[in-house]
Amino acid sequence: MTDTRRRVKVYTLNEDRQWDDRGTGHVSSGYVERLKGTSLLVRAESDGSLLLESKINPNTAYQKQQDTLIVWSEAENYDLALSFQEKAGCDEIWEKICQVQGKDPSVDITQDVVDESEEERFDDMSSPGLELPPCELNRLEDLAELVASSLPSPLRREKLALAVENEGYIRKLLELFRVCEDLENREGLHHLYEIIKGIFLLNRTALFEVMFSEECIMDIIGCLEFDPALPQPRRHREFLTKTARFKEVIPILDPELRQKIHQTYRVQYIQDMVLPTPSVFEENMLSTLHSFIFFNKVEIVGMLQDDEKFLTDLFAQLTDEATDDDKRHELVNFLKEFCAFSQTLQPQNRDAFFKTLSNMGILPALEVILGMDDVQVRGAATDIFSYLVEYNPSMVREFVMQESQQNDDDILLINLIIEHMICDTDPELGGAVQLMGLLRTLVDPENMLATANKTEKTEFLSFFYKHCMHVLSAPLLANTTEEKPSKDDFQTSQLLALILELLTFCVEHHTYHIKNYIINKDILRRVLVLTASQHAFLALCALRFMRRIIGLKDEFYNRYIMRNFLFEPVIKAFLNNGSRYNLMNSAIIEMFEYVRVEDVKSLTAHIVENYWKALEDVDYVQTFKGLKLRYEQQRERQDNPKLDSMRSILRNHRFRRDARTLEDEEEMWFNTDEDDLEDGEAVVPPSDKMKSEEDLMEPISKFMERKKLKDTDDKEVLGKSSLSGRQNPSFKLSFSGSTKTSLSSPPSSASLNPGSPGSPGSPGSGARSSPSTTTVTTKGGLVGLVDYPDDDDEEEEEEEEEDGESKEDPLPPSKKSKLSS
């Protein structure tokens, strides 16, 4: 497998008619039982995995191009190519293919892709070749008609290509072109345009190699200037010879490399500018032209990469202070195009390419370039930087962290990027949007590496928040010192929206780093100043930032919001928006609805106690009344924790709870000990969970009567709260510190001793029980419910237990009355 003759790259043609590299390996041929025939096999040189297994089909058209390429189609839209390292290896595999198909290895294509009609097959038998008319001025019209009539038929197209190739017809046509141009024979020039365009559509590599040779290519372009559909000929040759200049920023000593660069530029120009846009039917006919350009670019990058002196001179001049601005501009543009060409490389070669650039010092060079005043140079440097970040963000992160040990924060590469984003002069902030995307990639933990020795995420984020975050947030902090944004023009608002988008991303992905920064720098309060902006998109960005923070359900954030009364600017924006039904209205209501649905107790109490008077008249949605009801239920539970169990019965009766609720209740049940049950406690069979709602309404009605008596007192307390009032919650969230903890996370049974605060005699304590019984236990009015809605085995055990116990009424009236409390 170490034989370099059989070393190949496997390519497939994608939907954009571009070749995708599938890997490098070694090709062999042999009989494959599963495919029932001789097949081509390519195994990866890295791990020996199978890159390609393709049966040599007798009816498939294989084509040999440029002595080292074999191309074929396996399906209607699935083209494959093998690029050999050596010509000898390509010849060996080509002979094998021709042997299987019974063809002469001297041909460049084994057969036509499309089946011919019976008439064409008869023509093929009767006339082995296509006879071209003599290459004379008066026969050009006949030749143009022959080319046009041959293109629709694959068989005739192949015959025409062979005839043109074998008779050296292209050079004869170009001699005739020069004669027609000297005589200003427009009719002959128009016929030559149609003939040369048709030869392009023959899609044959051997013809392209003649047409794109140094002595022929400019005449080929000249023929394509005389389009009959245009009143005046194009001036492509004048552009290529006078306007387009080959700028040799670093002398290229290799003549083969120079010729390849010239050829590739001109062929690319022909494809993009000279040839008419191909129709849907003609597009596939130019696939070989795409391939020609693609493989030329691969060769150019490889030859430049191997020239160490060239790259050394390039980076030396880039970083040399004595280099004048024009020269540096040309060097940067060359490097940008060099990186763009590298996108054609396969992954392994691209690895080596960027590693070579890194070793040459591309990042320090970019740092110098980004510090310049020339906008065009900075733009090109940004494009190069984007190639590096997209390919290997870890390499960039490692560089900036090492750089921070020697340099001040102001000249760090990442801070230069942030400053260029902030100072973008484009009214639409096109450059700032690109730079923000690069920063987002750099701070994204998803593409950070974790090794045995270090964690890139921890190291880089600590660096970023210490050295860079203050630069990123500076425009935000400078613009939000008052109750309204100090600058509220469109461009400033766009920039602040970009910064907020990046900060929102950090809130979602950076956990404690961003949390410490927001709380210590009071960032959320400053962000909410932007809700007063005249630009709705900026106000919505500020709301989205707060919504992401609330969505984390982090009590550190919640306490920070309550301590600083940060719902106040949100409610002011809601009231200022009035009754308008717009995105602002919906976004604010959704935020409060989230607090209600997720039952964020601390925020619910804070909102109702401080802002209820401003919100009580909003009745077109039930969100705020629902929040008030949540609050009252919390107060009721604080006064009487036994009601938690009552509500769990009602919830279970109406809908199935989610898995988290079940897990909490199961944990509480399994921590209950049967030995702790006292005489006289009711054991309710699971079947009682299916009682009708009417049986449950009596205790509920009693609870509602008592609640109405408390409403009067509550209204007096809440009446004193206003939008601007900054009073502390009257009950100081005591339920979240004691009752909530004891109910949702009961202490383990091993720590419960008789007589201790967590013993069965204390409300909210967890007691142990055997998991084989599913019951509702009531003790001193405390009710705990565990439901196993989907567990058939548990239900069978419960039925057996029911049969073994004495049959009695599920709950006596005295017990039912206690449930209401």
Keywords:
3-stranded antiparallel β-sheet; Serine/threonine-protein phosphatase 4 regulatory subunit 3; protein phosphatase activator activity; P4R3-like_central_dom; disordered C terminus; EVH1_PP4R3; 7-stranded antiparallel β-sheet; PH-domain like; PP4R3-like; 821 residues; alpha+beta
Give an overview in words.
Among the domains are: 4-101, PH-domain like (Roll), CATH 2.30.29; 139-296; 553-640, no CATH class. The chain is elongated, with a radius of gyration of 39 Å. It is 57% helix and 8% strand. The protein is of the alpha+beta class and 821 residues long. It contains 37 helices and ten strands. A hairpin with a 5-residue loop joins strand 1 and strand 2. The strands form two sheets. The chain has a seven-stranded antiparallel sheet with strand order 4-3-2-1-7-6-5, covered by helices on one side. Pfam families: EVH1_PP4R3, PP4R3. Residues 703-718 have a biased composition (Basic and acidic residues). Residues 671-821 are annotated as: Disordered. Residues 671-681, 788-806 have a biased composition (Acidic residues).
Mean pLDDT over the residues: 77
Which range does the strand content fall in?
5-15%
Number of helices: 37
Largest sheet: 7 strands, antiparallel
Q: What is the CA-CA span between the terminal residues?
A: 82 Å
Total E-strand runs: 10
Percent helix = 55-70%
In short:
The chain is an alpha+beta fold and 821 residues long.
What is the secondary structure topology, with strand pairs?
Layout: E1 7-13, E2 19-32, E3 37-44, E4 50-55, E5 62-65, E6 69-75, E7 78-84, H1 87-101, H2 118-126, H3 140-150, H4 154-166, H5 169-183, H6 186-201, H7 205-211, H8 217-223, H9 236-243, H10 255-274, H11 287-306, H12 308-319, H13 325-342, H14 347-360, H15 362-370, H16 375-391, H17 393-403, H18 413-422, H19 430-442, H20 456-467, H21 469-478, H22 490-509, H23 512-521, H24 523-528, H25 536-551, H26 555-563, H27 567-577, H28 583-597, H29 601-615, H30 623-639, H31 643-654, H32 659-670, E8 683-684, H33 693-719, H34 734-737, H35 739-744, E9 776-779, E10 782-784, H36 792-804, H37 813-819
Helix pairs in contact: 3-6, 5-6, 10-11, 13-16, 15-16, 15-18, 16-17, 16-19, 17-20, 18-19, 19-22, 22-25, 25-28, 27-29, 28-30, 29-30
